[in-house]
Automatic annotation (TrEMBL):
The keyword Magnesium does not apply. It is found in: Mitochondrion inner membrane. One of its GO terms (biological process) is mitochondrial electron transport, ubiquinol to cytochrome c. The lineage of its organism: Eukaryota, Fungi, Dikarya, Basidiomycota, Ustilaginomycotina. InterPro entries: QCR7, QCR7_sf. Belongs to the UQCRB/QCR7 family. It holds the Pfam family UCR_14kD. It is a peripheral membrane protein. Keywords: Electron transport, Membrane, Mitochondrion, Mitochondrion inner membrane, Respiratory chain, Transport. Component of the ubiquinol-cytochrome c oxidoreductase, a multisubunit transmembrane complex that is part of the mitochondrial electron transport chain which drives oxidative phosphorylation. This is Cytochrome b-c1 complex subunit 7. The keyword Mitochondrion applies. Gene3D superfamilies: Cytochrome b-c1 complex subunit 7.
Length: 130
């Protein structure tokens, strides 16, 4: 079940269209640079709000190494934020390293919730009779 908080994603339509992808890519790259998360050593998925139940469940499914790395990146970013600094440029996260590690798990949790909701609302018709 999608909620209003999850938003609308046009990513699959943009990726499917080469022309649209070429048009949007420079804007997306400029946005990623302006967001500044890579300058703090954070991945895009580190910015996902943890308050949603689906995100909490997905975080619980991370392997121990990825969970440790996420915690390290968040602590490092908080420390840099308090100091009003960025990482040295050679330590910035490169775009090719900014992979989605949490989004696939969140989507999996949401699909499971949708399937569970569908099974919970199934009507059973009695056939035959007593």
């Amino acid at each position: 079940m999608a909620t209003a908080l999850e938003g609308l994603s046009l990513a699959k339509y943009i990726k499917a269209s080469p022309a649209l992808s070429r048009l949007i890519r420079p804007v997306a790259n400029a946005y990623a640079r302006a967001a500044g998360h890579r300058q703090m050593g954070l991945r895009y998925d580190d910015l996902v709000m943890e308050e949603r139940e689906s995100v909490q469940k997905a975080l619980g499914r991370l392997d121990s190494r990825e969970a440790y790395d996420r915690a390290f990146r968040l602590k490092q970013a908080i420390h840099l934020s308090v100091l009003h600094r960025e990482l040295p440029k050679e330590q910035w996260l490169k775009p090719e390293e900014d992979t989605r590690y949490l989004t696939p798990l969140i989507e999996e949790v949401q699909k499971e919730a949708e399937e569970r909701a569908a099974w919970d609302t199934v009507k059973v018709d009695k056939k035959g009779g007593h």
